[in-house]
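Bumping my old thread because nobody answered last time. Still need a sequence for this structure:
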């Protein structure tokens, strides 16, 4: 008789492996980390591990897919704001403010793999596209209501907002002494001043 899959246990073990990978990638980098080291950090046997992930690349894909939930949460708050400029600046603030050093290091590792692995690149692009659609709607709404200045193209504003978030996360990864809250405050104020219709 086939064994019935315990979904709760499966989810718990999957999270154990992801947490182990996060620690290893932050400490040693993606390419210097072996599956054996990840499984040791996760306290999972080698035989059982391949029921969850067949490779390190699959683990990175899982991180990118899990990131989509965080992005969806940010987008949900953006859409619930009746003030487009406030919603955009808050999204920028939260994306930076709540990124720990270890999470920032992991993000940089994932960015590096985006350029090497087409599957990871495709998943990451889906995340960016979700964010772009929501930001485009907010920017257009702000321009229409004359809250956001129309002197810059929406496309360039999008790229700047994403660059500001990704660049700030990169700086948090590079400098463990950097205070994300302070960086987030500056980023929020900068976006508001840039986009505000004077």
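Sorry it took so long. Here it is:
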């Amino acid at each position: 008789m086939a064994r019935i899959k315990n979904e709760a246990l499966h989810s718990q073990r999957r999270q154990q492996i992801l947490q182990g990978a996060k620690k290893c990638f932050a400490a040693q980098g993606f390419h210097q980390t072996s599956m054996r080291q990840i499984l040791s950090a996760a306290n999972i046997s080698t035989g059982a591990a391949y029921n969850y992930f067949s490779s390190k690349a699959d683990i990175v894909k899982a991180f990118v897919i899990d990131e989509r939930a965080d992005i969806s949460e940010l987008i949900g708050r953006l859409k619930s704001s009746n003030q487009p400029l406030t919603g955009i600046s808050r999204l920028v603030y939260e994306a930076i403010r709540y990124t720990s050093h270890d999470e920032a290091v992991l993000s940089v590792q994932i960015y590096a793999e985006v350029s090497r692995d087409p599957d990871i690149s495709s998943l990451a692009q889906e995340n960016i596209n979700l964010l772009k659609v929501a930001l485009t709607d907010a920017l257009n709404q702000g321009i229409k209501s004359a809250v956001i200045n129309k002197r810059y193209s929406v496309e360039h504003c999008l790229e700047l907002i994403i660059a500001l978030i990704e660049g700030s996360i990169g700086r948090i990864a590079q400098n463990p002494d950097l205070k994300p809250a302070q960086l987030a405050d500056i980023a929020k104020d900068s976006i508001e001043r840039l986009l505000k219709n004077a």
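Residues 118-144 form the longest helix (27 residues). Let me know if any region looks off to you.
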